[in-house]
Amino acid sequence: GRQPRVEILDAKTREKLCFLDKVEPQATIAEIKNLFTKTHPQWYPARQSLRLDPKGKSLKDEDVLQKLPVGTTATLYFRDLGAQISWVTVFLTEYAGPLFIYLLFYFRVPFIYGRKYDFTSSRHTVVHLACICHSFHYIKRLLETLFVHRFSHGTMPLRNIFKNCTYYWGFAAWMAYYINHPLYTPPTYGAQQVKLALAIFVICQLGNFSIHMALRDLRPAGSKTRKIPYPTRNPFTWLFLLVSCPNYTYEVGSWIGFAIMTQCLPVALFSLVGFTQMTIWAKGKHRSYLKEFRDYPPLRMPIIPFLL
Amino acid sequence: MAAAAAIAASKGNGGGGGRAGAGEASSSRRKKGPGPLTTAYLVIYNVVMTAGWLVIAVGLVRAYLAKGSYHSLYYSIEKPLKFFQTGALLEILHCAIGIVPSSVVLTSIQVMSRVFLIWAVTHSVKEVQSEDSVLLFVIAWTITEIIRYSFYTFSLLNHLPYLIKWARYTLFIVLYPMGVSGELLTIYAALPFVRQAGLYSISLPNKYNFSFDYYAFLILIMISYIPLFPQLYFHMIHQRRKILSHTEEHKKFE
Known about the structure:
heterodimer; A: 308 residues; alpha+beta; four-stranded mixed β-sheet; two-stranded antiparallel sheet; 7 helices; 48% helix; 9% strand; elongated; B: 254 residues; mainly alpha; EC 4.2.1.134 (chain B); endoplasmic reticulum (chain B); transmembrane helix (chain B)
């Protein structure tokens, strides 16, 4: 019979890396990656990018060999994506850090503030409230990572964990330092301001969680299908009528709430940076929705209703 | 760093042959260049900048001859220095709108570091304006920029004299360390005055629950030179080898 053969070349040097002799026509790229790993064990499947053209797009794991535009000998080009780490690991590390770090400042662990303040407690209610909110936020994120989110990619490059952790941990330490400082100044408009901010925070946390659940239900376990998200019976999801990524909208809202609650400039700066990044992601997601779905609702904006 | 970054990272302001920049291989590929109107604008921009830095150079020489010493020459070229160095902010815009193929991030770092030194250090801390270290970096920047902007001008017009290319990729060997020394010494000289005046600093308690110590910030800036400067310097050395030997080979076949 005419069983396809696969040769794998290095995308940059065109060096022949591997020749696979009798490959099943129904074989998927994932299976080919596994075969390739056997001859080159240092390149586990997650770090392989195989493509038909050295400069082209990566083939997907689900693609079937027979359905690709190749002859009896398929030539695939290989690029090493570098050491990979699972998304779950990255998320857990990024989020556990701020949770723990904030508490170090809250409990005024030694060497942060002056010695006379070690293990003392703030006399401002808002400081205790802020600790609860901040901790709740990151515990929620950890639980969502473990039980709610369905990731479409298994891994990301290893260097991302250093970059991401520096960002999250760094900002957490910076804001926690001021909020829990002995010289902290409570909000100008007192309890009114704190109550309003807390309401915003809670509503946005609920909203964000609702969106995460709605997105989860959109995609069956183990699959990588993509569908247009629509509002459900949960009123928090009605924001889908106006934006593509309401989870980001609610996330920004939560941090604005927290900034108003603590009246702390570093929190406001963190919100601004986060908003910038999430806007970039939302615009990208919005663009890919538009490209993939002809019937995508035209009223929707990426992240801010009617505006952005 | 401002001096170093300006030479190493900037590959832009138009032009074709033999440009070197951070990470860009020198290529003789015909790239789809900017349109005629854009090219005209960029040529004008680069000519004006070349002229501006020449004005600063001439100003320095005249002031030296008039005073008879090289101390406190800053005051004679303060205004054109501020104007033309700040004008370089336009280069960030050029990258952002795509008329120049350099990285926005890299260009931003290089221009902002120069602008920082001019305004946030030299202008803000009047006491350092009479320091000799200021002259050190001003001379380094002036020579570098005259060569750099004329390099871009000629590249845009597709008539790059080898001398300019040689100068750009050789003089940095001395100008870099000179500029960096001038910059570091100036920042160092500014420190006690910053501390004394509490310049640009805010302390707790305040209603924004924020603090900033400009003195500590300047020290961090100085420390950042340690990892950054060698990288930029050796990148330029590497580029020099690649670009100047490449040209030599071409000349052989003429």
